[in-house]
Design a protein that fits this description.
The chain has 295 residues and is mainly alpha-helical. The chain has 13 helices and no strands.
């Protein structure tokens, strides 16, 4: 008798234990994909799983590549959600925007935890593969730059790393020239009858956002009477959640880089940790943070 066909228990019962193969057949799982689309086909796994091409003999380079490729995939989804959320806010469709902004915050949490994996790379392990990176750097990520621009951190100089590719430059420049998420939020407040300075409703969207006392007063109107302005109040909190998650993502980036390379210059030419620390001081939605002191 097959030892897997039944199990004897002390009370004398001998329940039949199904074989793994029989379970598959009982559940009518599809096993033949010669004429239909499989899981791998749908996800284009042949392309995805052959896109990792280490240049060095170092064992740990695969970790470095997978870390950054998966981050770019998450950023692709983040941009998809951000662009849609901005459009919904522009159309006064806040409930749909809230769902998308919440998802963006969760994606950022995922990216925060991804640094934990890269942090397992030690300085000697990174040093073994670093010469093979050339001048390539996450600083040049066009998706990350589009995210920064969509969140309002505009900087014309950040277009230059993409000038060698007209298609990529067009994507980044579109985000650079468009109203940011925060710009659209302020325009929404104005449409709802809350006074917002005209200087912040129609301006050169390519310029960095400038904090304004009048904008803070607009948000204070919302936060001092949340019942009357409940969806705008919720919008303010969604923006707070998003920037909170973004700050954590940036901070975890800094600490991981310092842990792995110390204060060496980055491959992209920046000061590495020194540059990343300066980015920690950038506030995306300043009035929403300041009002907490003034409430």
């Amino acid at each position: 008798m097959c030892p897997f066909s039944q199990t004897t228990v002390q009370d004398g019962h001998t329940p039949t234990a199904a074989m793994p193969e029989s379970i598959v057949h009982e559940e009518r799982a599809q096993l033949d994909f010669s004429q239909s689309m499989s899981y791998g086909d749908y996800l284009q796994l042949d392309a995805v799983l052959t896109a990792q091409k280490p240049l060095s003999p170092a064992h740990d380079e695969l970790l470095f590549i997978v870390q950054h490729q998966t981050s770019e995939l998450w950023m692709k989804l983040m941009l998809h959600e951000l662009r849609a959320a901005i459009a919904h806010i522009a159309n006064d469709e806040l409930q749909m925007a809230f769902k998308m902004l919440a998802r963006v915050s969760k994606i950022m949490e995922q990216l925060v935890h991804a640094w934990d994996v890269l942090a397992t790379m030690t300085p000697p392990e990174y040093t073994a593969m670093r010469p093979y990176l050339g001048q390539s750097s996450g600083f040049q990520s066009y998706q990350y730059r589009s995210i920064e621009f969509a969140l309002g951190n505009k900087n014309r100089a950040m277009l230059r790393p993409h000038e060698h590719r007209a298609d990529l430059l067009a994507q980044v420049q579109a985000a650079y020239e468009a109203p940011s998420l925060y710009d659209e939020a302020l325009r929404l407040l104005a449409r709802r009858g809350i006074p917002v300075p005209a200087s912040h409703l129609e301006r050169d969207w390519t310029q960095p956002y400038a904090e304004d006392a009048g904008v803070e007063q607009a948000w204070l109107t919302v936060y001092r009477n949340p019942k009357e302005h409940w969806d705008l109040y919720q919008l303010g909190e969604e923006l707070t959640d998003l920037e909170d998650a973004f700050r954590l993502w940036r901070f975890r980036h800094v600490t991981t880089v310092e842990r792995v390379i110390g204060f060496k210059r980055g491959t992209g030419g920046t000061g590495g940790v020194s540059y990343l620390r300066k980015m920690l001081d950038v506030v995306l939605f300043p009035e929403i943070w300041k009002l907490r002191t003034d409430l």
